[in-house]
Amino acid sequence: MSQRRLEKMNELLKEAIADLLLRKSKDPRLKAVSVTGVKVTADLKKAVVHYSVLGGENEKAAIKKALIKASGFVRAAMGEHLQLKYTPEINFEFDRNLEYAQHMNELLNGLSAATGAEPLADQDGSLDGPDDD
Questions:
Q1: Burial 24-37 (b: 16+ CB within 10 A, else e)
Q2: Which of 12, 103, 107, 128 is the most buried (most CB within 10 A)?
Q3: Residues 72 and 106 in one domain
Q4: What CATH code is carried by the domain that includes residue 68?
């Protein structure tokens, strides 16, 4: 399968799964989940769904269990909605990119404070520049 077609499939699955979790899931914990990406294999048999959620480690663990429990529902609903020849097996994986970005932001701001320089980013993560007033 071509790379472009795989990318389109990844995006289609991302949108479909996010919509399913938000609108059709009966578990209220899953409505707080943000689907950040999907990576499907070339044979369309397996898909890894990357997600993020705000909260502590206990909440993340509870949501992970809820996602595992809901994976059959998600797969069946995707099969009906997308009408694919193969409906991929769904595996959920927590996306740590947002945590990593926040950690790097804190390190950079700490370094700026230690050297007396202006912070590189505001608390919300937006970059300050010389033209920003």
A1: ebeeebbeebebbb
A2: 12
A3: no
A4: 3.30.300.20
